[in-house]
Design a protein that fits this description.
Number of strands: 18
CATH topology of the largest domain: Aminoglycoside 3'-phosphotransferase, Chain: A, domain 2
Strand order of the largest sheet: 6-7-12-13-10-9-8
Number of helices: 12
Number of domains: 3
Radius of gyration: 23 Å
Structural class: alpha+beta
Largest sheet: 7 strands, antiparallel
Bound molecules: adenosine-5'-diphosphate, ligand LMANGFYV
Helix content: 25-40%
CATH class of the largest domain: Alpha Beta
InterPro entries: Aminoglycoside_PTrfase, Kinase-like_dom_sf, Mak_N_cap
Protein name: Maltokinase
Distance between the termini: 59 Å
CATH superfamily of the largest domain: Aminoglycoside phosphotransferase (APH), C-terminal lobe
Enzyme class: transferase
Pfam families: APH (PF01636), Mak_N_cap (PF18085)
Organism: Thermobifida alba (Thermomonospora alba)
Oligomer: single chain
CATH architecture of the largest domain: Alpha-Beta Complex
């Protein structure tokens, strides 16, 4: 009879949020199966350890269990398979296992657990102090290019369930709570979280680990990426016009986004630790960028012709002795992480790079790293509609002009909003932009190979 582990070995690599795509799964172990709803239909929160190519990553699976033949049609698409019943379950010898994120009956328990500050076995559901949580709302899974899985409850809350688990407090919860506590108008209010203790292989200790975060749902939100892409499309449809004169100019929004980013950085620096990077620490930063480039060149040989210029930019950072002010930052900043609401820009997803251990992501960094991330995103927005049309000189010129105009507007907004003037820190900014582009090359190679030309073409343009 099929075991659940076998089903998961086939199913996990097909999920958008699975980080180890394209690499064979050597072993899969269910480290913990927390019973949230006993019986059938039932809900387990699984912590699954997946070993690939010598390294082990952990994932969260919200596992629904129903009697085979009792799976409603609307859940058919979420079925993982039929397997032997897990230990401790009274009833049939086999069960249908499915992704419970899609089961509104099961997800209702997650919301009510948070509202009632419940402890269910080892799983702790918590309401953010000072807020209340309404229950009885139906959830819907957001579809999109996500690293995690987000549920929207009614029009009130989003519950972000973290898929790749790293032991520790998730920076998304940590920073969003800190900013909300500081009175920032640029984040969605946190309402609660779910956590469980997970053993940390690095320290041998168990650590409270965030499984999910509940936040205010921003009804009027439009994704920054969608807005920017619409502006680019308008420009492409207006041959010969400069971006400022084509309909849908984005520069005003880019300027306001720069100002919002500076305000968030200011608040983070006010309520969380800050420091200044001395030359040794700066040298380690350059080492880390160089090491990442090394890995990327081995994985994507098309990077090799540009490697010398990229290495030189990281060396320039090492030699700059800039006494870099550092603080907590967003860490994976791009247009898909910001939404425009009717009252202005709101920043989301302070998780940092999901593939990096939490301890690393909590390290202080230069706010210019976020600035570089957003500048790279303007470049992406300008280029992605060119994929397959890079021989159209007029479109390529328009793309460049759009990215340049919005880059300048964002930097101007950032500086006038109280941040440093990014244009006055070229060496540092360039190193961060190159480092992000290198990261993107690896990200696209692993997740969206049809888009790898976007960061590769930018690197070609940036390095001349
Ligand atoms: N509080 C919110 N209100 C409205 N939409 C949201 C909210 N949080 C997230 N979203 C939507 O969900 C998308 C993915 O959320 P995000 O936190 O970036 O997840 P991931 O880490 O998986 O990328 C966002 O781009 C946004 O469109
Ligand atoms: O939002 P996530 O935390 O999942 O971030 C990851 O995925 C992003 C893509 O969805 C990726 O961003 C890259 O593509 C964006 C367009 O889709 C572009 O705006 C960004 O500039 C580019 O980096 C991000 O790097 C990755 O960590």
């Amino acid at each position: 009879m099929t075991r659940l582990e076998e089903l998961l070995t086939t199913w996990l690599p097909t999920q958008r949020w699975f980080a180890g795509k394209g690499v064979a799964v050597d072993a899969l172990r269910i480290e913990a199966a927390h019973v949230v709803v006993p019986g059938l239909p039932g809900l387990r929160i699984l912590v699954v350890a997946v070993t690939q190519d010598g390294r082990t990553d952990r994932y969260q699976v919200l596992l629904g269990l129903r009697s085979p033949g009792a799976v409603p049609d609307e859940l058919a698409h979420a079925v993982i398979g039929v397997c032997e019943s897990p230990a401790g379950l009274d009833g049939p010898s086999t069960v249908a296992a499915y992704d419970a994120a899609h089961d509104t009956v099961m997800t209702a328990h997650l919301l009510s657990g948070i509202a009632e500050n419940r402890d269910v076995g080892a799983v702790r559901f918590r309401t953010t102090p000072g807020t209340g949580v309404h229950t009885g709302l139906r959830s819907l899974v957001l579809t999109g290019e996500q690293s995690n899985t987000t549920l929207v409850y009614g029009e009130e809350y989003v519950l972000k369930t973290f898929r790749r688990l790293w032991p520790g407090l998730n920076p998304d919860l940590e920073l969003t709570s800190a900013l909300a506590g500081a009175g920032s108008e640029f984040v969605a209010r946190p309402h609660g979280w779910i956590e469980v203790d997970v053993a940390d292989p690095a320290t041998g200790r168990t650590t409270p680990t965030t499984l999910a975060m509940l936040q205010e749902y921003l009804r009027s939100a439009t994704d920054g990426w969608v807005l920017a892409a619409t502006s680019v499309r308008d420009l492409y449809a207006s041959p010969g016009l400069p971006p400022g004169e084509a309909g849908g100019d984005f520069a005003g929004e880019a300027q306001r986004l720069g100002a919002a980013t500076a305000a968030v950085h200011r608040d983070l620096a006010r309520v969380l630790p800050t420091d200044v990077l001395g030359s040794e620490a700066q040298s380690r930063l350059a080492d880390a960028m160089t090491a990442r480039l090394h890995t990327a060149v081995a994985e994507v040989p098309e990077l090799a012709p540009h490697a010398q210029t990229l290495y030189a930019a990281f060396e320039a950072l090492r030699d700059s002795h800039a006494d870099l002010p550092v603080q907590r930052v967003h860490g994976d900043y791009h247009l898909g992480q910001v939404v425009r609401t009717d009252s202005g820009w709101v920043l989301l997803d302070f998780e940092g790079e999901p593939a990096v251990p939490v301890g690393e992501r909590q390290k202080l960094s230069s706010p210019l790293r976020d600035v570089a991330g957003m500048l790279r995103s303007f470049d992406y927005a300008a280029r992605y509609q060119l994929v397959g049309h890079t021989d159209d000189a007029a479109l390529v010129t328009a793309a460049r002009a759009w990215a340049q105009r919005n880059r300048e507007a964002f930097c101007e907004g950032y500086a006038s909003g109280g941040g440093v003037d990014p244009e006055k820190h070229q060496v540092v900014l360039r190193a961060f932009e190159y480092d992000k582009a290198v990261y993107e090359v690896m990200y696209e190679a692993r997740h969206r190979p049809h888009w790898i030309s976007i960061p590769l073409d930018s690197i070609t343009a940036l390095t001349g």
